[in-house]
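for the writeup, i need someone to sanity check this before i put it in the appendix. the sequnce is what the collaborator sent (i think, or maybe the updated version? ugh). structure was predicted straight from it, no edits. if anything looks off just tell me and ill rerun, i have time this weekend
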Amino acid sequence: MYGTILSGMSTAMHALGVISNNVANSGSTAFQKSDVTFADLFSAGTPESSSRNSPGLGAMVEGTRRSQAQGNLMEREGVLNLGISGAGMFVVARPDGQGGVGTDLAFTRVGEFSLDAAGYIRSTDGSYLLGVAGDGGLATDRTALSPLLIPPKVEDSTLTGVTIGRDGMVVGSYGSDLMQNIGQISIATFANPMGLRNVSQSRFEQTIDSGAAVLGIGSTQGFGSVNSGKLEASNVDLTTELTIMMRAQQQFSGSAKLLQTNADMVEKLTR
Protein backbone atom coordinates (compact mmCIF):
# COMPACT_ATOMS: atom_id res chain seq x y z
CA MET A 1 0.00 0.00 0.00
CA TYR A 2 2.78 2.42 0.88
CA GLY A 3 4.44 1.85 -2.47
CA THR A 4 1.20 2.48 -4.36
CA ILE A 5 0.55 5.75 -2.52
CA LEU A 6 4.14 6.93 -2.84
CA SER A 7 4.07 6.28 -6.59
CA GLY A 8 1.16 8.69 -6.85
CA MET A 9 3.11 11.34 -4.94
CA SER A 10 6.22 10.72 -7.02
CA THR A 11 4.45 11.08 -10.38
CA ALA A 12 2.75 14.28 -9.15
CA MET A 13 6.14 15.71 -8.15
CA HIS A 14 7.57 14.82 -11.57
CA ALA A 15 4.64 16.55 -13.28
CA LEU A 16 5.15 19.66 -11.14
CA GLY A 17 8.84 19.70 -12.09
CA VAL A 18 8.04 19.58 -15.81
CA ILE A 19 5.34 22.24 -15.45
CA SER A 20 7.73 24.49 -13.52
CA ASN A 21 10.28 24.24 -16.32
CA ASN A 22 7.61 25.02 -18.93
CA VAL A 23 6.39 28.09 -17.04
CA ALA A 24 9.93 29.30 -16.35
CA ASN A 25 10.70 29.18 -20.08
CA SER A 26 7.40 30.62 -21.31
CA GLY A 27 9.29 33.74 -22.38
CA SER A 28 12.27 31.93 -23.92
CA THR A 29 12.63 32.27 -27.71
CA ALA A 30 11.47 29.16 -29.61
CA PHE A 31 11.24 27.08 -26.40
CA GLN A 32 9.28 23.86 -26.87
CA LYS A 33 7.34 22.72 -23.84
CA SER A 34 7.39 19.17 -22.48
CA ASP A 35 4.39 16.96 -21.80
CA VAL A 36 4.37 14.06 -19.33
CA THR A 37 2.58 10.76 -19.85
CA PHE A 38 1.86 8.29 -17.06
CA ALA A 39 1.00 4.60 -16.99
CA ASP A 40 -0.41 2.21 -14.40
CA LEU A 41 1.57 -0.53 -12.69
CA PHE A 42 0.08 -3.96 -12.23
CA SER A 43 1.11 -7.39 -11.04
CA ALA A 44 3.20 -9.43 -13.46
CA GLY A 45 1.16 -12.55 -12.77
CA THR A 46 -0.82 -14.48 -15.36
CA PRO A 47 -4.65 -14.55 -15.47
CA GLU A 48 -4.48 -17.97 -13.81
CA SER A 49 -2.23 -16.87 -10.95
CA SER A 50 -3.60 -13.36 -10.34
CA SER A 51 -6.86 -12.68 -8.63
CA ARG A 52 -9.33 -10.79 -10.76
CA ASN A 53 -9.98 -8.33 -7.94
CA SER A 54 -6.31 -7.67 -7.11
CA PRO A 55 -5.52 -3.93 -6.91
CA GLY A 56 -2.97 -2.20 -9.09
CA LEU A 57 0.48 -1.28 -7.85
CA GLY A 58 0.31 2.46 -8.53
CA ALA A 59 1.55 4.69 -11.33
CA MET A 60 4.78 5.38 -13.14
CA VAL A 61 6.18 8.07 -15.44
CA GLU A 62 5.95 6.57 -18.92
CA GLY A 63 7.77 9.39 -20.66
CA THR A 64 8.38 13.10 -21.09
CA ARG A 65 7.94 14.28 -24.66
CA ARG A 66 8.81 17.60 -26.27
CA SER A 67 5.92 19.35 -28.02
CA GLN A 68 6.48 20.09 -31.71
CA ALA A 69 3.70 22.70 -31.87
CA GLN A 70 4.53 25.92 -33.71
CA GLY A 71 5.10 28.98 -31.52
CA ASN A 72 3.70 32.34 -32.57
CA LEU A 73 5.95 34.53 -34.71
CA MET A 74 6.60 37.87 -33.01
CA GLU A 75 7.76 41.03 -34.73
CA ARG A 76 11.36 41.82 -33.75
CA GLU A 77 13.33 44.67 -35.26
CA GLY A 78 16.41 43.54 -37.15
CA VAL A 79 16.85 41.73 -40.46
CA LEU A 80 18.91 39.00 -38.80
CA ASN A 81 16.15 38.09 -36.38
CA LEU A 82 14.68 35.03 -38.08
CA GLY A 83 11.70 32.81 -37.37
CA ILE A 84 10.80 29.56 -39.12
CA SER A 85 7.14 29.07 -39.97
CA GLY A 86 6.65 25.34 -40.43
CA ALA A 87 9.01 22.39 -40.19
CA GLY A 88 12.77 22.65 -39.87
CA MET A 89 15.62 24.03 -37.82
CA PHE A 90 18.59 26.30 -38.44
CA VAL A 91 21.98 24.58 -38.70
CA VAL A 92 24.76 26.14 -36.63
CA ALA A 93 28.39 25.22 -35.94
CA ARG A 94 29.97 25.89 -32.57
CA PRO A 95 33.27 27.77 -32.52
CA ASP A 96 36.41 25.74 -31.91
CA GLY A 97 38.94 26.43 -29.17
CA GLN A 98 40.70 29.10 -31.23
CA GLY A 99 37.53 31.02 -32.09
CA GLY A 100 37.21 29.53 -35.57
CA VAL A 101 34.43 27.38 -36.96
CA GLY A 102 34.17 24.01 -35.23
CA THR A 103 33.03 20.73 -36.72
CA ASP A 104 30.27 20.01 -34.20
CA LEU A 105 26.83 20.89 -35.56
CA ALA A 106 23.76 21.85 -33.58
CA PHE A 107 20.18 22.51 -34.68
CA THR A 108 17.88 25.19 -33.34
CA ARG A 109 14.75 27.22 -34.06
CA VAL A 110 16.14 30.20 -32.15
CA GLY A 111 16.78 32.77 -34.85
CA GLU A 112 18.46 35.60 -32.94
CA PHE A 113 21.50 36.29 -35.11
CA SER A 114 23.89 39.18 -35.55
CA LEU A 115 27.09 40.04 -37.42
CA ASP A 116 30.48 39.75 -35.76
CA ALA A 117 33.44 42.03 -36.53
CA ALA A 118 34.45 39.91 -39.54
CA GLY A 119 30.92 39.80 -41.01
CA TYR A 120 29.94 36.23 -40.04
CA ILE A 121 26.31 35.64 -39.06
CA ARG A 122 26.42 34.27 -35.51
CA SER A 123 23.94 33.28 -32.83
CA THR A 124 23.76 34.57 -29.27
CA ASP A 125 26.08 31.79 -28.04
CA GLY A 126 28.67 32.52 -30.74
CA SER A 127 27.74 29.68 -33.09
CA TYR A 128 28.02 30.22 -36.85
CA LEU A 129 24.91 30.08 -39.04
CA LEU A 130 25.47 27.62 -41.88
CA GLY A 131 24.20 27.57 -45.44
CA VAL A 132 25.31 27.39 -49.06
CA ALA A 133 27.53 30.35 -49.94
CA GLY A 134 27.23 32.45 -53.09
CA ASP A 135 24.17 31.82 -55.20
CA GLY A 136 22.85 29.26 -52.73
CA GLY A 137 21.01 26.09 -53.58
CA LEU A 138 20.43 22.73 -51.95
CA ALA A 139 23.15 21.31 -49.72
CA THR A 140 23.40 17.60 -50.51
CA ASP A 141 25.27 16.87 -47.26
CA ARG A 142 27.00 18.65 -44.40
CA THR A 143 30.23 19.05 -46.37
CA ALA A 144 28.41 21.51 -48.64
CA LEU A 145 27.61 23.76 -45.66
CA SER A 146 29.75 26.73 -44.75
CA PRO A 147 29.43 29.74 -42.41
CA LEU A 148 27.58 32.62 -44.05
CA LEU A 149 29.81 35.67 -44.34
CA ILE A 150 28.58 39.16 -45.24
CA PRO A 151 31.69 41.13 -46.21
CA PRO A 152 31.72 44.74 -44.95
CA LYS A 153 32.98 45.95 -48.35
CA VAL A 154 32.71 44.81 -51.97
CA GLU A 155 34.52 46.62 -54.79
CA ASP A 156 35.24 49.57 -52.48
CA SER A 157 31.51 49.88 -51.74
CA THR A 158 30.40 49.70 -48.10
CA LEU A 159 27.60 47.44 -46.93
CA THR A 160 24.39 49.46 -46.73
CA GLY A 161 21.78 46.78 -46.12
CA VAL A 162 20.85 43.11 -45.97
CA THR A 163 17.67 41.35 -47.08
CA ILE A 164 16.66 37.75 -46.39
CA GLY A 165 13.94 36.08 -48.44
CA ARG A 166 11.43 33.47 -47.26
CA ASP A 167 13.60 30.88 -49.00
CA GLY A 168 16.54 31.90 -46.82
CA MET A 169 18.44 33.70 -49.58
CA VAL A 170 20.69 36.39 -48.10
CA VAL A 171 21.46 39.39 -50.32
CA GLY A 172 23.77 42.25 -49.41
CA SER A 173 23.43 45.82 -50.70
CA TYR A 174 26.61 47.79 -51.29
CA GLY A 175 26.77 51.46 -52.13
CA SER A 176 23.82 52.80 -54.10
CA ASP A 177 23.26 50.09 -56.69
CA LEU A 178 25.41 47.00 -56.08
CA MET A 179 23.61 43.81 -54.94
CA GLN A 180 25.48 40.62 -54.10
CA ASN A 181 24.22 37.14 -53.22
CA ILE A 182 25.77 36.17 -49.89
CA GLY A 183 24.36 32.67 -49.64
CA GLN A 184 21.27 30.68 -48.73
CA ILE A 185 20.38 29.57 -45.22
CA SER A 186 19.96 25.80 -44.99
CA ILE A 187 17.06 24.24 -43.09
CA ALA A 188 17.28 20.78 -41.49
CA THR A 189 14.51 18.31 -40.69
CA PHE A 190 14.64 14.87 -39.06
CA ALA A 191 12.70 11.64 -39.42
CA ASN A 192 12.24 11.58 -35.63
CA PRO A 193 12.76 15.05 -34.13
CA MET A 194 11.80 13.64 -30.72
CA GLY A 195 15.07 11.70 -30.81
CA LEU A 196 17.23 14.84 -30.83
CA ARG A 197 19.38 15.43 -27.74
CA ASN A 198 18.75 18.74 -25.97
CA VAL A 199 22.05 20.48 -25.21
CA SER A 200 20.42 23.58 -23.59
CA GLN A 201 19.54 27.01 -24.95
CA SER A 202 16.98 25.34 -27.26
CA ARG A 203 19.80 23.73 -29.23
CA PHE A 204 19.81 20.08 -30.19
CA GLU A 205 22.22 17.47 -31.45
CA GLN A 206 21.61 14.63 -33.88
CA THR A 207 21.39 11.11 -32.44
CA ILE A 208 20.84 7.58 -33.75
CA ASP A 209 17.20 7.85 -32.67
CA SER A 210 16.61 11.13 -34.55
CA GLY A 211 18.18 9.90 -37.76
CA ALA A 212 20.43 11.95 -40.01
CA ALA A 213 19.58 15.55 -40.80
CA VAL A 214 17.75 16.11 -44.10
CA LEU A 215 18.90 19.44 -45.51
CA GLY A 216 16.60 21.61 -47.58
CA ILE A 217 15.61 25.09 -48.66
CA GLY A 218 13.03 27.29 -46.97
CA SER A 219 9.53 27.49 -48.49
CA THR A 220 9.99 24.23 -50.41
CA GLN A 221 7.99 21.03 -49.85
CA GLY A 222 8.57 19.69 -46.34
CA PHE A 223 10.46 22.77 -45.14
CA GLY A 224 9.15 25.87 -43.41
CA SER A 225 9.64 29.43 -44.59
CA VAL A 226 12.24 31.83 -43.17
CA ASN A 227 10.72 35.05 -41.85
CA SER A 228 13.07 38.01 -41.44
CA GLY A 229 12.33 40.50 -38.67
CA LYS A 230 10.43 37.91 -36.63
CA LEU A 231 11.21 35.49 -33.80
CA GLU A 232 9.33 32.39 -32.75
CA ALA A 233 7.84 32.60 -29.27
CA SER A 234 7.65 29.59 -26.95
CA ASN A 235 4.71 27.25 -27.46
CA VAL A 236 3.83 27.32 -23.75
CA ASP A 237 0.20 28.15 -22.94
CA LEU A 238 0.26 29.46 -19.36
CA THR A 239 -3.46 28.83 -18.82
CA THR A 240 -3.06 25.17 -19.77
CA GLU A 241 0.06 24.78 -17.64
CA LEU A 242 -1.60 26.25 -14.55
CA THR A 243 -4.61 23.97 -15.04
CA ILE A 244 -2.32 20.92 -15.20
CA MET A 245 -0.46 22.24 -12.14
CA MET A 246 -3.67 22.35 -10.09
CA ARG A 247 -4.48 18.78 -11.12
CA ALA A 248 -0.98 17.64 -10.06
CA GLN A 249 -1.35 19.46 -6.74
CA GLN A 250 -4.68 17.74 -6.10
CA GLN A 251 -3.12 14.38 -6.94
CA PHE A 252 -0.27 15.01 -4.49
CA SER A 253 -2.63 16.22 -1.74
CA GLY A 254 -4.91 13.23 -2.25
CA SER A 255 -1.99 10.81 -2.06
CA ALA A 256 -0.70 12.52 1.10
CA LYS A 257 -4.11 12.12 2.76
CA LEU A 258 -4.21 8.46 1.75
CA LEU A 259 -0.75 8.00 3.27
CA GLN A 260 -1.92 9.50 6.57
CA THR A 261 -5.10 7.41 6.53
CA ASN A 262 -3.09 4.25 5.86
CA ALA A 263 -0.72 5.07 8.72
CA ASP A 264 -3.68 5.62 11.10
CA MET A 265 -5.26 2.30 10.10
CA VAL A 266 -2.00 0.40 10.60
CA GLU A 267 -1.55 2.02 14.00
CA LYS A 268 -5.04 0.92 15.08
CA LEU A 269 -4.43 -2.64 13.85
CA THR A 270 -1.19 -2.96 15.79
CA ARG A 271 -2.42 -1.67 19.13
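Residues 2-67+235-269 form one domain. The chain has a mean pLDDT of 91.
thx in advance!!
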